[in-house]
Amino acid sequence: MSRRIFLVLVAAGAGGNADAQGAEPPDRALLQRIEELERRLAAADAGEPPSNAELLARLERLERRVDPGDAGMVVFSSPTSPFAVRLSGYGDMQFAFHDYGPNQNRQGGAQRDARLVFDQARFSLQLRAFMPFDVMFEGELELEHGGVATAQELDYEEFGEFEEEIEKGGEVLLEELYLRKTFFDRYSITVGRFYVAVGLLSRFYRPTDHLAATRSEAETTVIPAVWDEMGLQLQATFERVRITAQVLNGLDSSGFSSQRWVALGHQARFELVRATDLAYVARVDFTPPGSEVGVSAYYGGTSRNRPKADLVLDCAGGDGATVAPCGWADAPLLLLDLHVRLVWGPVRASALVLWGHLWNAAAVSSRNERLSNAANVLRSPVADQALAAWAEVGVDVAPWLGLGPAHRLEPFARVDYYDTMFGKREGLFDNPRFERLVWTLGLSYTLASAVVVKLEASQRRFGSGALRPETSGRLAVGFTY
After folding, report:
1. Residues 259, 462: contact at Cβ < 8 Å?
2. How many CA atoms lie within 13 A of 464 on its CB side?
């Protein structure tokens, strides 16, 4: 058995490299070697069911044809387990120059400054394990900013206070942990922690997936960045359509704010996730070859997932032995998005428009203002509506420069627009510094769909000309494996 597994892995690895390049003519000697190995395996296994490693090798060959970026994953298995495991992941490092100071709360905007910021942005380890009966599990561990320790930050949203904490979920994240069962090669049910099917970053988040050095500022400001929650997912995949339905834990409205709208409502501060208020997601994607066009909708409550039962209705004579004796003040959240990802010859483009509405935002804001400093939330008023939109496009000029198919050289442009106070109630000050437009121009180089180097310049402008624009330059180095 061990000899057969070794032969399968050799064959799969050789075939994966050929498929990953995709544009070079096949090596006839290599093809003959693979065919001979497969014939020997077929003869050796006549009358026996395929082993886990053989099933995995066949699966990988199919996946490489669909997504060459998955080629080259490490494969291993244990003789005591039916699972065969694949290891993958990515890394991202950032070197940035800013011409502005970190305090954006001043009357005229941030002061002029010249500062460098280096960041080990993230390193991800992803394990996928497959077994017969179409069952798999996935776990993804991400280390952000170099590790986990006691962190100290100067928070200008909290009037320039220094805050110190051991960040649960801020530095080491278990972003995914789920079990999936597939039926008839088309339908699947997933239970555990997985990405929320809203926006583009739920699917395209690796450094090789986007052209700019960083993920979209618009999308990561308004909603949680690469948003993951716990729950149940049902999915149906057809030839050109993918339909996704999810039931998840809802957000915690104590984290909502002027600056980040509902993004900090993602539950990462406590050991247990509150799911008294659930959320529901529906998404439909049309998937022509190399592209994706779709819509998604999210609706969920936010009142009963707060750390304390403090967003409740007032009444006289309620039962003091009951939490929320007169009921909760409803504060449901609705998100709608339209997203596009296009690969057409040398052109690669992505775009998103996302709009959201929070009901009863005034009650949420009033209660958040009275939260303790120890809650580690911004405690600023939250608007009723927010809007985020972004688009980027690049053209691969490597063939015009005589570079081989393993190289992509893409001049690109990106625009981000977002306003976390897009729709506000009467009496709420529409702070112009929360309306932002960011232009980015740069150059992205990709080697073998696995290593990226990006150089860019960007400028951020605000909703008022009285606020000073902010300019940045950035070098990013990343990889996937």
Report:
1. no
2. 10
Q: What is the C-alpha to C-alpha distance for residues 70 and 481, in angstroms, rounded to an integer?
A: 8
3-state secondary structure of 41: helix
pLDDT tens digits along 195-225: 999 999 999 999 999 999 999 999 999 999 8
| Exposed / middle / buried, residue 29 (Cβ in 10 Å: 0-12, 13-18, 19+) | exposed
Cα three-residue angle 445-447-452, rounded to 5 degrees = 50
Residues 369 and 335 both lie in one domain: yes
Distance CA 455, CA 460 (A): 17
Residues 111 and 98 in one domain: yes
Question: 4 with 102, same domain?
Answer: no
Number of domains in the chain: 2
Alpha carbons 65 and 354: distance in angstroms, whole number: 32
Q: Which of 72, 90, 110 is the last residue of a domain?
A: 72
Which tops the pLDDT comparison, 17 or 123?
123
Residue 83 is which amino acid?
A: F
Residue that finishes a domain, picked among 24, 41, 72: 72
Strand segments, DSSP code E, in 315-426 are: 333-344, 347-358, 385-395, 407-423
Domain carrying residue 46: 1-72
Verify that 341 and 210 share a domain, yes or no: yes
The amino acid at 219:
E
Q: Three-state DSSP class for 349?
A: strand
Are 62 and 87 contained in the same domain? no
